[in-house]
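Journal club prep, shared notes

We agreed each person brings one worked example of a sequence with its structure written out as tokens. Mine is Cytochrome c oxidase subunit 4, mitochondrial. I'm keeping it raw so we can talk through how to read the token line rather than staring at a rendered picture. Sequence first:
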Amino acid sequence: MLRTVFSRRVACLRPLKASIPSYRPLSFTAFHRNKHQEVTKSAAQELANAKEPSDLIGPGGREGEVPTDIEQATGLERLELLAELAGQDAFDMKPLDASRKGTLDDPIVVTSLDPFRHIGCSGSPSGSHNLTWMTVNEHKPRRCPECGSVYKLKYNGDPHASHH
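Then the structure, token by token:
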């Protein structure tokens, strides 16, 4: 009796597995591609028009709908999302130059919107020593105690931001 029940289950599953479509309609793909291009163009235009913090307030969701991230984001989060949609990197998140060793005459420059930044040095060439964390500030360069590479901060923020 068990053999009969088991064979019926297997027989029932086979037609279901064969009936699942494994293709994606072309019209669906084209629709999303065109919609993505429109969103990218509007994001680039909105990013170019943002001159002050009040320009980075999203419109919010329409009544009866759940808002998307871009509709409800504000401030720096909205700036980052708009830049990502426009194909730009808002906060310069690429890794530092690890192809050379920084010297006092030619340090590795670290950009920041704050007057200090925490960085990790893994040596030159990359990975030659364990990761060493340091805090670099805008007043003087910082030397890695392991490999001797020198890092200097380039402050791109508002100089009067800390004055309230």
